[in-house]
């Protein structure tokens, strides 16, 4: 797509959202209707494919064609329901474009945008569950995990300036996020040949996440991981004791050294 076309799409989307905000709907906006028609055509193409892997490949090709439109909607910063925006949000999660997905999700939650009926879940629930599930699957492999994605998602779903009703989700879904965070923290430690004292904070974080997950859902699958992290924490105890004793010895020897220096000066 040429830069001129991208600019046109972004400007047109922004203008459509700004006009729609005055009337409360995007339905009568011609540019939106064009995008919706394109979306329906692309959805039809996807339905013709049975392979999930092949569907993902097609979505990877389709998503960039919608991003100028998405950027225009975000720049307009208006609270208007938008089927195109919300569908592309889901596709971004599907193709693991998490940076864009989280940007869109946060925008959607701030503006209380709802998912199309076919997704059968609230926005916060769908985003949290789909990303958590993807990471839980990835954590079962040897692939490197970008824990920053999970941490950013956590920050979004606990924002106090977003209506609590908008962020409300089943405890089981929130537990999945915390289990994923706990497992990811453990993986950071286990990726090293030997855990160091600097990993203590990771272990403590993992313990807190997993304990919270189990509080929310006893069947969340985090109990074995909690045992793992408790074992890891025990490895840090001797180091902590040793450091404490070393610090205490250093402190106790200081007055004696000071006295020795004073006596030498007196002589």
> Which secondary-structure class do the elements indicate?
mainly alpha
Oligomer: single chain
The number of domains is 2
Query: What is the percentage of strand-forming residues?
Result: under 5%
Report low-confidence residues grouped into runs of 5 or more: none
Helix proportion: over 70%
The major beta sheet can be summarized as: none
- Terminal CA distance: 87 Å
Give the helix tally: 11
Kindly report the average pLDDT value: 88
Inertia-based shape: elongated
DSSP summary, beta strand count: 0
Rg value = 26 Å
Give me the strand/helix succession. Answer: HHHHHHHHHHH
Can you characterise this structure?
This protein is mostly helical. The protein contains eleven helices and no strands. It is elongated, with a radius of gyration of 26 Å.
Outline of this structure?
The chain has 267 residues and is mainly α.
Topology record:
Blueprint: H1 3-23, H2 30-47, H3 52-76, H4 83-94, H5 98-110, H6 123-138, H7 147-157, H8 164-167, H9 171-190, H10 200-216, H11 223-266
Helix pairs in contact: 1-3, 3-4, 4-5, 5-6, 5-7, 6-9, 7-9, 9-10, 10-11
